[in-house]
Amino acid sequence: MSYIFEELKRAFWSPAMLIASLLSIFMFIGGFIEYISWLPSGQLSLLYLFLSGYNSGTANTLALAFPILACLPFVASYVQDENNHLTNYISIRTSERTYKTIKFFITGLTGGVAVAIGPVVGFMILSVLSFVFQLPLEGEGLETAEMFHSMGIASPHLMILLIILTIFGCGFTLASFGLGLSVFVKNTYLAVLMPFVFYLITSTVFIDINPLLNAQILYDINKTGMGSWPRVAYAAILIIIGAVSFFGGGRKIEYTR
């Protein structure tokens, strides 16, 4: 149990996690900050402002950078453990299977938190602003809101919660996938960048083959127009690939017992 807490502390209190979290927060806030001066007019809604941050304004920075944010905190940790020869002494603390299981889930967790913390903090800020300026919860003609309405979801707060959960899921997925790739690239920088390269390839090359191969559907809830199942299936496939690669492709850890 102490080993789990040590790994959690190592993951969540690292400079890489701090950098990824701050970038996520700044990107999200940057998406709606241009509308702050409009708040006294009362023409904007809480949901509109949140979706502006979610889309990171016209630059779509968070939608583009989330694979790097997800992988930055802990994806390279297995490669670092190997380079530092820490994996040779795992038997002193725990078994190989336990080590890899803890590593896999903490990596996914850090990836999900790093991407989702921006929307969570942004929502908290917007909730305060909404109370101060008495903003409506939902405006008119929002495409995302109409999509949720078609699913029978009318509460803007529930919409925002589902978006945040989706963002967490996409971060978890890309981090898990990246950890699986890291056992083959064996380089800390490539381990962080490979999922981003995969994301770019699927959004440019694969999209001509089939739009559902575009990894952006993991993040963009409006992308498929077919409900959530394509997103869930895509995420499950990438997580399985990451798990199989990590548990099966990693170097056999030498035991000292």
UniProtKB/TrEMBL annotation:
UniProt keyword Transmembrane helix, yes or no: yes
Membrane spanning residue stretches: 12-38, 58-79, 104-133, 153-177, 189-209, 229-249
Superkingdom classification of source: Bacteria
Keywords: Membrane, Transmembrane, Transmembrane helix
Residues of the signal peptide: none
Descriptive protein name: ABC-2 family transporter protein
